[in-house]
Amino acid sequence: MMMLASLLPVLLLSVRTIQADTVTASVPTFKHTDPITGKSIECERCPPGSYLRSRCTSTQKTVCAPCPAGSFTALWNYIPKCLRCSMCSMNQVVKTACAADRDCQCQCAEGYYYKQSYDMCLRHSECPSGEGVLSTGTPSDDTVCQICPNGTFSSTVSAHLNCTEHKICTAAGLQLMLKGSVWHDSVCANCQNLKSRDGADYLKEILSSFFGHYKLNIKRLRRVVHHLEQGDKGATSELSLSDLHRRLDAWVDSATASKVRQLPEILKKVGADHASERLLSKLQRIEGNLNELCGLRNEVEGTTMSQN
């Protein structure tokens, strides 16, 4: 026991010496000509977070200094000054702040994702009417959209909203006047409380969604608004797309049934034949169901329409 006790300090000293030698051996070096002797010597590099203040000599070790604020070194080095911290570019925010031993890390700002082929952050794609968000965009990935499954719809352009289930008319004691599609909800009616409403009144429920789904070019949309408002043509010639849709929504809110019935013909006049046909078809289906399910007879362009 006495012999072991006397050997313990020697063993500990040996372990510390080995550890010190290992640390010393792991420090990278660089070759340098001693300005005093003219001989080539090896100098220790400076650790990350510092820079070389003065090189070593045959009598003095390398002198390092810490990087000042706003600069960094991420590697063992022998450079005379630290590197300036990077700045995040357009549509980027700081993910990790710059520190003495690392540069700052940036990521795309909220609503943007990194497109590698462009080496820049682009705005997340928006799912069009008739499609919902399957997965929302992240700083590294774009939005993923899907066509609304059966029984659901999306009437808006969005980078966040998923498809919504169609309302079930019978669950509320109503009759189905128009089956929902991927871009509009079902249209329901209470046959016991129709009052003076007719098919065109019910069609108004989907008109805002209709103009969002059938994307008319801005020239045609300006002509549509001009015909609907019957105002000065110059008053609509400079309106933006968002302004035009606001004017259309306002018109829908105040339009009478007789004015709504004129809409398919106006669409045809401006060259939007497909949109005109689709809207007229929707109106005819509503009129047919009102006649069949509620015992009403409504006129579409002067002719009683049957259900399609």
Automatic annotation (TrEMBL):
<keyword id="KW-1015">Disulfide bond</keyword>
<feature type="disulfide bond">
    <location>
        <begin position="127"/>
        <end position="145"/>
    </location>
</feature>
<dbReference type="Pfam" id="PF00020">
    <property type="entry name" value="TNFR_c6"/>
</dbReference>
<keyword id="KW-0732">Signal</keyword>
<protein>
    <submittedName>
        <fullName>Tumor necrosis factor receptor superfamily member 6B Decoy receptor 3</fullName>
    </submittedName>
</protein>
<keyword id="KW-0675">Receptor</keyword>
<feature type="repeat" description="TNFR-Cys">
    <location>
        <begin position="66"/>
        <end position="106"/>
    </location>
</feature>
<feature type="domain" description="TNFR-Cys">
    <location>
        <begin position="107"/>
        <end position="145"/>
    </location>
</feature>
<dbReference type="Pfam" id="PF21733">
    <property type="entry name" value="Death_3"/>
</dbReference>
<feature type="disulfide bond">
    <location>
        <begin position="85"/>
        <end position="98"/>
    </location>
</feature>
<dbReference type="InterPro" id="IPR001368">
    <property type="entry name" value="TNFR/NGFR_Cys_rich_reg"/>
</dbReference>
<feature type="disulfide bond">
    <location>
        <begin position="88"/>
        <end position="106"/>
    </location>
</feature>
<dbReference type="GO" id="GO:0005576">
    <property type="term" value="C:extracellular region"/>
</dbReference>
<keyword id="KW-0964">Secreted</keyword>
<keyword id="KW-0325">Glycoprotein</keyword>
<keyword id="KW-0677">Repeat</keyword>
<dbReference type="InterPro" id="IPR052459">
    <property type="entry name" value="TNFRSF_decoy_receptor"/>
</dbReference>
<dbReference type="GO" id="GO:0006915">
    <property type="term" value="P:apoptotic process"/>
</dbReference>
<dbReference type="InterPro" id="IPR048522">
    <property type="entry name" value="Death_3_fish"/>
</dbReference>
<keyword id="KW-0053">Apoptosis</keyword>
<feature type="signal peptide">
    <location>
        <begin position="1"/>
        <end position="20"/>
    </location>
</feature>
<feature type="disulfide bond">
    <location>
        <begin position="67"/>
        <end position="82"/>
    </location>
</feature>
<feature type="repeat" description="TNFR-Cys">
    <location>
        <begin position="107"/>
        <end position="145"/>
    </location>
</feature>
<feature type="domain" description="TNFR-Cys">
    <location>
        <begin position="66"/>
        <end position="106"/>
    </location>
</feature>
